[in-house]
Amino acid sequence: MRKACLILIAAMLVSAPLGAETLAVHKSKAKAQSMGYPTRGQTSKQVIAKFGEPKLKHAPVGGGAPKQPPITRWDYEGFSVFFDAGHVIDTVVKDQPPEISHKDELQPVQPPPLAPAPVPAEPAPEVEEPITAPNELPPAS
Length: 141
What we know:
The protein is an alpha+beta fold. The chain has helices spanning 2-15, 29-35, 44-51; strands spanning 23-25, 56-57, 71-76, 79-84, 87-94. The chain is built from three helices and five strands; from the N terminus they run αβααββββ. It has a five-stranded antiparallel sheet, with helices on one face. The relative contact order is 0.17.
C-alpha cells in the first residue's frame, strides 16, 4: 500500500507544473507531528480545523481497482496533504530533504567499464571502370 501511494504521489508530482521546488515525503509520523504538519490517520475535518481550507483541492486520482484507491491532494502554503477515503496518508513538505535511511548500506557508484574505441572503417578501394558509349559494347575479355 505504501509503495503504491508513493508511486501515485510521484505520478502526481510529475504531472504538476514544473518548477524549481524541492519536495520531500516525511517518513516519520513523530517528525511530522513535531513539525506541526498533518499526520497519517487524521481526518480531512481535523486538517481543516487546524490548517483551514487549502489553497487548492485536486480531484481524486486512481480508484480503478481495490488496490488503487482514489487519492486526493490538498495544497497548502509550503506543504501538500494526501488523503485516502478522507484520511491523511502522507504529507509532503517543500524544501525539506528526506532523512537517509540505511546509511550503512550505501555503496559508492562504480563507473561503467569504458567501451573500446571504435576502429575507423577503411574506405573501399576505388575501381576504375571503362566508360562506354551508349552504342558501344564493352571490350571482350
